[in-house]
Amino acid sequence: MSSIYAALMLWSALLMCFSYYLEDTIFHGTIYAWFVGIPLITFAVYKKEKYQYDLLLMNINKAEDPNQIVLLTNYIQKLLSRYQTNQHFQIMLDALIEVHKNTCQKEDCVFRIKKQLNQRMKKLKDENISQRDYQIQQLLGEIYQGFIRRHQNNVKLRINYAFYLLDFLKQKQQSLNEFNQIEFLSPSLDNEFIIFRYKKIIEEEMNIMQNESINGNQDIASELAFQNNMRQFQNKIERATLMHMDFWSQLQEDSPDLGKMNEIGYKINLAILQVEDLWNKMQKLTQNLPKAMRLYAKFIIEVLQDKDFGEELLEKSKMLQNQNNKMKNKQTIQIFSSDDINFEPLPTLLVQTSSDKFAQICNLNLSLCNLLGYQKTELLNRKINLLIPQIYAKFHDNYLEMFLQSNDQQKISKERLIYVKLKSGYIMPCYLYMKALQSYDENILIAAQFRTLRTFKTGCYLILDSDEAIECISSSCICNLFIDQKMISHRKIYFHELFPNYNRNEYLNKSGCVISLNLLSNIVQNSNYLQYYISDLEDQTQILFQIQITEIQNEHLDQVMGYVIKLEKVANEYSQILSPDVQQQLVIPNSSLSNFQFKYFPAKGLYLGENQDEGNSARVDQTVIWEQSSRLSEETQAEKKEKVEEVKVEKINYAEGIRTLKLFDNRIQDIEDIRMSFTESDEVQHSSVFQKNQDNQDDFEQGRTNNVFRNRKTLNSTINDQQRPKVIVYLSWTINILMLTVLTLSFTSYFLGLQLFENVQNSLNLIKYASQRNQECTQIVMNIQNLEMLRIGIWNLTESEALQYEEEQRMELNNSIFELKDANKKIMLNDLYINEQIEELHSKSVINVRISQNNFAYYDLIEATQQIISKALIVKDKPLNNLTLDDEDATFITYNLHNGVIFQYRNETSQYSLGIQDISENNINIFFIFMIVAASSFFILLLILIILIIQINQIQEQILQLFMDIPEKTVKYLYNKSENFISNLQVGEEEEVSSDFSEEEQDEIKELSRTLKSKRKKKIFKNTNQSHRTQILVITFILFAFQGYFLLNYFLNQVTYNNIKQQIPELNVTARCGSYYRLVDNGERQLFLNREEPILLGDAYSVVMNNIQLNYDVDSDLHQEHAKNSEIMNSDYYNTFQQIFMLNPCEKFFEQGFTTVEYCETFANGSIQQGMAVAIARFFENVRYIMTIYDMFYGHPEVNFSVAARGWGRFRNITQNSDNVTNYIYNLNNFKQTKESRVMQNVFIKAAFRYLLDEFVKTLKSDIEMTQTQLLAVFIVFEVLIFFVYFIVWLPGEIKMTRDIQRTKGLILMIPLRVIQKIKTIKEFISFLVHSQDK
Asked: What is d(CA 1256, CA 1264) in angstroms, rounded to the nearest whole number?
């Protein structure tokens, strides 16, 4: 239930987040999705639990999917951790055990075996782990091991197994090894993080736990890791030495390649760092590593030329070696795995304790084969009882099981005397030392090592059973008791038959007792050996022996199983009994049974070795002779070591550390420095950035410089100073300036581009507001004209219809006033600068407004519009009877909106269009300037960067040139030193290096010192290092990429602004069309009302006729501009234009709320349905036709109205007088064409051009937003590129260049101090470094 509850909570949280961001945006009904998801989530969780039941019932032996095994093991561990508080889990575990018992096919199944637990089990038992829990954990181990063998590349399975090794088995090293192997399987990023984290944790814990004292013991895995590290350590030292040889060899050439020398020097530094890191790692594992320390010291002295530190390590290694020599008797077995047994000098074997191979021999060395007389294959996988006398073999398994139960390490670690059974059947007394080893499969291996006895008296050994019958004898019984193995195997021989006076109770556990062998007994007399060893049988009747009897007890059963008897001949009896010939015969066989094994130490000129018994085999184990640790006989080796140390005479250099000082030039100086100052005055001066004039340095600086050359540690700190070189500092500042420049230009160009685009968008809004204001002004004029005509009675309406019509006109007038006021307010509040003309119209009184009949005043356009709004509000509330043609308020509006104000409205719209074009052109120029500034800045910075990179390369080159001043003999000497070291290392010599040089070396050094004082011929060098060229190319490419951003930025902006410029004329025509067509219609109606009132400051009739003609020009301009922009125009607006002008626009008009579809499609004989292009043409023809009729009526009262009207209108005497012309003209307003034009203009043309203008502005803004999105994407990519270049390319590159210079400087440490002191150029360079550090 808890899982279902958690799943429901998660589902609810996800749906809440989903609804918060997406509800009512792109999705509706989140609550329904939540309800639908509840049963699905519940079912999914229930099925998951059911699937886990299936996992427990799964037959593990037939499973193939490793993912199922991962789920199974995780679930079993979950059950183990929670079954104590959940009875259901406990039942499930019991079921798991029963299922596994029935399906397991292995004989050693963990739930079937009844043998005792091994060491690891016992350790876990101490932690209150129940038998069942441990068995389940063992089952997990079997599952992991079985499936890992089949699915070795499954990362998740192996990670779980590594956690199993770490958490349950507590095997940190094995777990670490498993993590190391998983790394080679290309794990995913999350698994890589897990592996890295746990590896670090395990290594830290192991370093803390295993940093033991000198006499402490390491576990097996740690020792194996140390041995592996030791091999790697030696390989890395060998590799570093070979690189040194390659460096000195390159320097010996006639034309050294500085580039190759620098490359080799780089590799040398890396190799030295690897050696140091591995050395530090080995020190963390253990501090007891004299062999590795001695090797490292020799490497430092011979190769790295650091004599002081090397000798310090040598002294420390000597101290550790002496301590180890004192402690080495405490432990003899040095193996830690089955593979190491071949390196053991003493006879050694390994015994398994696992249930399937209990007490079987799993490995042994050849030394044991020589001892026992067996072939190696004869003993492998055989029980250890084969090598044990039968009386011991009966209860040996019980002893082994008792040890596994008790885990008493101290009991088996003590050396004891045992009797081993040879292949011939004889027994041999040996000292046995045992050690418990932990194997990787969780089982214990018993390592047993045998050491033969050193006997100085003639004797033999017998083993008696509880009835005192002889069961086993040693081979020496043949010559002492005259019996062999065949005799005791054919019949039972009791001990008292040989020794009649034997009484066990008298001799038991006593020493020094004497017993006599009866030579007259039947057994002795019937022996074939008696005649070979006894010359005078008549005189000899007995032989005296010292006897020692020990009981053989079975501690498990607490009973005596038999007895061990040791017999030694009484002193002086040997020479009396045996004749000289027999003695000679006895010596020869004995000499053939020993072998002198030795090891030669070249450095000391000594052989160390001892005689070793071969047993019954003549084979010699080479591992015994050449084993690395040369563990032969501890006592003998220690004694000879002490003798060698006593004989060794060390040559003491009493002059070491003594310096001769002299007061010279008011300073205390080393006399060698004074001599060098004279000898160096004749050397050739080299031009270098490091050669500075030192004449003005003070005494302190000079003394400090001299101390640098006398102390290797001080020289090392001076050379490896972490201070950044100045050229790197300059380069860093240049790069920082470059990055700041790029960031500044990119951010400025991007955000300035956003601002410029915003200005263009606001300008487009201004065009829309200005067009809206023009249309609303013409709408106000039309409403006032309609009210005036209603007062005159032109409209043929009933009284109620007239009231309704008046109400509609006043409402339309009110709406137009409101929209005019809103548009004028938006224009007034906008502070965007377009051009001077717009500013003049909005801020200066340039518009001549007629206040009354003969009264004019000047206003700006905003004020003039406010005046019109105020007058329109008055007219809106004025009674209809007061709206005469002479009304000042109505006349104010009609006159000004037909003359001065309308002129400026049209001028304002045109200026807005021109201003946007100018803004677009200026914006293009701005981005062009950005591009030029960026290109100029990048070019200048590129030149600076190239100069600095060349200087860095010159610095490295000049440092490498210092090596050219080293004499060839010195170079050859250093090469030979490295070569000798690598030769000794490969041979495997272990001698300790003395801190003093031999006489031969001292002579060579003196010879080198004399050659250093002579003049040296400068070598011609070459430099194939092309890294600086690569760096210059990379920087150039990056700067071109940076410049590419500004080019792309300029290109995107240029394309967008050019498109806007090209479309602005069409936008201007579209914005003017609606108001212009209304102006033409209003002008015609105003002509009908008052021909005397001017229109557009001209004759009303002429202007109206001209405007009618201009209708066609405006419409033609609109279509021409649209055709020009068809390729660059937004597809949405292009489709909208086609829908309005060429297709049926009724659906669009209905969507905008202007009319109904039915009315639209039937109006004007369906002309609207055919597209506004047809409708507008019909509108033009109607207006032109009405003016044609007007021409027939005006000034011709005699015209027959009916004939002229042709049925399109009906005459009404509107004026109620005989003025036919006026009546004819007033009746023109009721013509069908006039009504149709009025409706078409008021509904369809107004709707069409308002919709087109809105869509046009909207699509232009959409194009701008699209460009902004593209610029944003490019800007983000560019900023990421800047981040990548600076943090991923430059910062690591700066560190690399700094390290390259430091590593190149560090190559100087390869030169010995005595050579540095003799070369002026190197000294001057180091002095320059000291001087730079002081600054």
From this structure: 12
